[in-house]
Amino acid sequence: MGTHMSKQVERRKAIKTEKKILWDLQENSGSDFPGCDYHPPDRKNWMSGLDPQKIHVNQIVWPGTHDSATNKIGIRMISRPFAQCQSLSIYNQLVKGTRVLDIRVQEDRRVCHGILLTYSIDVVINDMKKFLSETQSEIIILEIRTEFGHQDPPEFEKYLIDQLGEFLIHQDDHVFGKTLAELLPKRVLCVWKPRTSPQTKLGSPLWSSGYLKDNWVDTDLPSTKFESNIKHLTEQQPVSGRKLFYRVENTVTPQADNPVLCVKPVTKRIHGYGRLFIAQCIARGCADRLQIYSTDFIDDDFVDSCVGYTKARIEGKA
To answer: Do the beta carbons of residue 181 and residue 136 sit within 8 Å?
Structure first.
């Protein structure tokens, strides 16, 4: 018991120290960057507002959500706080400006996060279709994977093509150098990551798992995650020469050996430092590698920071 208590005391000290590191970094270095003062007048149509004829796919800092479809996961007030990473529906996330979705499914096509379940994938698809019907030039990256420990849903590739066929941007390395206008009217780039089913081939309506990569660092220590994100980002190619999407996630996650197991209070340790991360990428010379930037509980400020830096890139200011 004494050893356990001592360990918990040390853990709390480590968390306090790491929170102070980020606070001090922001106080001393600031979080300004080219485009940081831009706020899109219509987040629902921010890509349209920046002009699809001018935006190249590889210029965008794509605002994304981590574990996107968890707004109603588990049982409210009982198991939900341990797995909920977003409070908004998929539709409302898209309206707010999210353009990358992270969806995990199990064999019966229900969305899950670990062992906890929520609604059918049909809810995600219908929310996407509603958003697409109300906009004209917004492009969505949809990543769907079979959750760890689960089996692939039967005939799931066919299901996705049947549901999204008219919107799907086919797998093609040339997409990265194109403008959004050149992709339209196709508007969904769907990356399907099965566990055992065959990977999709070049030219397929769906993209294979190798086209969206990240380096997941499973920690509840905010400065550790922040610095790991920077380190892994520096190891990537600049977006101008990259033929895949690379994601950085502005999240920290509860750990089983820590008494704080609810997502929201843990991820709050890093949540407010989205702008600082972009500023530090510039300061440390790796901003040309930043591409997909995802978070828990996405908000207006996070979207604005991504869109603002995208605008600066388009204008040649970044």
So the answer is: no
